[in-house]
Backbone:
């Protein structure tokens, strides 16, 4: 340990999980499922980082390492029909919900597979047809708050008992969209749950340089909404807090803002060496790595045997290797298809032949209105 005085103020978060397994409603299979999702994402992202360095990924790579407990804990308490969406750092949440690593890897490699056919990175993973994940935002920071409010409004108008869970970053709480979206959601008491992952940086900008308040939740009174702040690397703390926020929103009481303090263990993207992050901060959060803490808890408190954990980890490594093999074997999109799939078909397209639906039909859309333009009889449009 360095003897030098830390240059950063370090909060007083414990380096171990507090929960007593006897108080939890989870059996061993369920505890294993949490571990598998978090560890699968970590292993996948380590490999993805190395593929990026080998030049096998076109474009930038953004990872969620260090934020696995906030992701898995939050979505694990969602119910059937609820939606969640990511900005970039919630791969473990998708794996928890059953997304296949091989499909994500093929998307990262830009391969010609549905639904994006090489038009998008493996970041957003929108796929209503197969995954029930809605397309959500345009990448402009905080645009997902008003669009999340829109989905929540749709739930309310349809009298569906569901919530929209929107992951967001700390930096994305500063642009104006954050305020407009939450203001609207609060006025209309919409079932919108914001899970804010305060990972200490927005690109290279530290919290103090972009927020005049200490906590994101300190902003909640401006919208008169429910808010909580917690340590985000303790899986069970995350679940409890997320559950309270979700049930608040589901109960018709309006939006909830649940803030989790966590750490982005990598740079903003893999092109960023995070040289601006103080070594003390890295060490502090390395001791509080969510997967490391949960693994120790499984061994010490939940009576998992070391060989059980080793078998899970071996299975995960094999799954990621086969995901890479699968992705590498898929074709790239054909050059002549470059102008296809850029715009949704519209009944207002000038030429009748352009009005044809060349997309896979969505038989049972979660939100039928999203596909209204495919229904020529009504003439609906986006
Ligand atoms: C309006 C707008 N400005 C700038 C950007 C570029 N940008 C993308 S992500 C990001 C930082 C996001 O930080 P944060 O919300 O904390 O999320 P994190 O990356 O830490 O998960 C910035 C500045 C953008 N996408 N949109
Ligand atoms: Mg951030």
Residues:
């Amino acid at each position: 340990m360095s003897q030098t005085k830390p240059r950063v103020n370090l909060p007083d978060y414990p380096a171990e999980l507090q929960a007593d397994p006897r108080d939890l409603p989870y059996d061993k299979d369920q505890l294993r499922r949490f571990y598998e999702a978090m560890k699968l994402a970590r292993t996948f992202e380590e490999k993805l980082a190395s593929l990026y360095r080998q030049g096998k990924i076109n474009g930038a790579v953004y990872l969620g390492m260090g934020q696995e407990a906030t992701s898995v804990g939050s979505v694990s308490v969602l119910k059937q029909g609820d939606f969640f969406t990511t900005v970039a750092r919630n791969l473990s949440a998708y794996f928890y919900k059953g997304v296949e690593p091989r499909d994500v890897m093929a998307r990262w490699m830009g391969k010609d597979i549905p639904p994006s056919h090489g038009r998008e990175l493996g970041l957003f993973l929108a796929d209503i047809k197969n995954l029930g994940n809605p397309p959500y935002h345009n990448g402009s920071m905080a645009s997902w708050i008003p669009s999340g409010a829109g989905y929540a409004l749709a739930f309310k108008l349809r009298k569906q008992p569901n919530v929209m869970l929107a992951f967001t970053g700390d930096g994305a709480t500063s642009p104006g969209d954050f305020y407009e979206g939450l203001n609207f959601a609060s006025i209309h008491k919409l079932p919108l749950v914001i899970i804010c992952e305060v990972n200490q940086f927005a690109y290279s900008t530290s919290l103090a340089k972009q927020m005049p308040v200490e906590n994101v939740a300190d902003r909640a009174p401006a919208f008169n909404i429910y808010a909580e702040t917690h340590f985000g690397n303790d899986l069970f703390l995350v679940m409890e807090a997320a559950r309270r926020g979700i049930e608040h929103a589901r109960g018709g009481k309006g939006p909830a803002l649940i803030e989790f303090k966590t750490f982005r263990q990598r740079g903003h993207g893999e092109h960023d060496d995070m040289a601006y992050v103080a070594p003390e901060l890295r060490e502090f959060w390395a001791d509080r790595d969510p997967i490391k803490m949960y693994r120790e808890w499984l061994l010490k408190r939940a009576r998992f045997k070391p060989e059980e954990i080793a078998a899970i980890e071996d299975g995960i490594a094999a799954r990621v290797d086969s995901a890479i093999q699968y992705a590498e074997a898929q074709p790239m999109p054909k050059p002549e298809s470059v102008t296809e799939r850029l715009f949704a078909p519209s009944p207002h397209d000038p030429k009748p032949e352009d009005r044809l639906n060349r997309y896979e039909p969505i038989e049972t859309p979660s939100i039928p209105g999203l596909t209204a333009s495919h229904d020529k009889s009504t003439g609906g449009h986006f």
Summary: Residues 368-382 have pLDDT under 50 and may be disordered. The chain has two domains: 32-342, 345-382. The domain at 32-342 is CATH 3.40.50.970 (Rossmann fold). The two ends are 58 Å apart (CA to CA).
